[in-house]
Amino acid sequence: MLKQLEExxxxxxxxxxxxxxxxxxxxxxxxxxxxxxxxxxxxxxxASLPLEERKKVGAQANEVKKALESSFTEKERHLExxxxxxxxxxxxxxxxxxxxxxxxxxxHPTTRILEEICDIFIRMGFQVFEGPxxxxxxxxxxxxxxxxxxxxxxxxxxxxxxxxxxxGARLLRTHTSPMQIRLMERKxxxxxxxxxxxxxxxxxxxxxxxxxxxxxxxxxxxxNITLADLKGTLFEFCHCFFGQERRIRFRxxxxxxxxxxxxxxxxxxxxxxxxCRLCSYSGWLEILGAGMVxxxxxxxxxxxxxxxxxxxxxxxxxxxxxxxxxxxxIRLFYSNDSRFLExx
Length: 344
Ligand code: DAH
What we know:
CATH class of the largest domain: Alpha Beta
Bound molecules: 3,4-dihydroxyphenylalanine
Distance between the termini: 73 Å
C-alpha cells in the first residue's frame, strides 16, 4: 500500500505538470483529491487495516494529501495569474509597459512653515490651542486694552460681521491675540501655550498684504516670568528656525496689550545687514511683535497681576515663509498656481 501511495503521488504530480488551464486543473483536483479519488479511498480503508500498518499508511497517506493540496494551490495561483495576463493582452493591454508615475500631493508652504514653527515651541514645552475665526469685539479689542475710541483700532482694518453693535459686535479676528484672553479664562497658571490660526484684514491686496493670513500667538504665564524669559525664548526660536549664525535684533515697540512691548527682527537674508530692496535698506526684517502681558489684560483673564507675570508674542506665518523661501509676493500663497505650489 505504501508503494501504491508513492506511485499515486508521482503520477498526480506528473499530470499536474501538464495542466495548462484552470478547467483542466479542476478535473485534476476531482481525480486526485476528490471524494471518489484513490487517495480518499485509501484514507477511508485505513480503519480495516491492522494497527501497525494503519499507523504507517495513515501517516504516509496524509502526507501525500497535504503535498498534493499545496501543489494544487500553487498551480492554481500560477494559472490565475497567467490567465489574467493573457486576458489583458487580448484586450490590448501591454503588461510590460512601465506604470505611469502617480503624482503625490504635498503640503502647502504655509502648512509646512506653520508645522515647523509649532514643532520648535512644542519642543520648548508649549501646548497648542485653537480658537474661533469669528470673534467678539470684546476679545479682539476691548479685553486687549483697545476700547472703541482707541487709535490702535486703526492698526487693524477690520472685517465686521455686525455693524454698530459696540462691545457685542462680531468680526473676523484681525489677529490671534484674542486667544490670550480665551486661554486665561479657561486655564490657571502656569500657562505655556501657542495658538496658531487664520486672521483676516479688510485690506487691498498687494505684494505684502493679504486679506487672510496665518499667525502664531504665544503666551506664557507664571510667577516670576521676566523679559529675560521672553528674550531667551524668542532668540532660541530664531536660532532654531533661521540658524545659529543669523543676527537678531530685539528692540522696543508699542502694542496696547503688552508693557513693555518689543519687536524682533532678523538680519536680512539678501544683503546680510548691508541694506537692500528686500529690507527697505535697513538691513533688518521684522518677524514678530511681543511683550510682557499688560496687568489689565491679566486681570481680564482673572489672573492676579500682583502674583503672576507673563509674556506674549505673535508672528505672521506667511511673512516668515517668505523670508525662508525668498518669496517676494504674498499673493502667491493663496492664488493656487500649481507652478508655485509644486516647488515645495
Ligand atoms: N497681534 C499683533 C498683530 O497682529 C502681534 C502681537 C504683538 C502679538 C505683540 C503679541 C504681542 O502677542 O505681545 O500685529
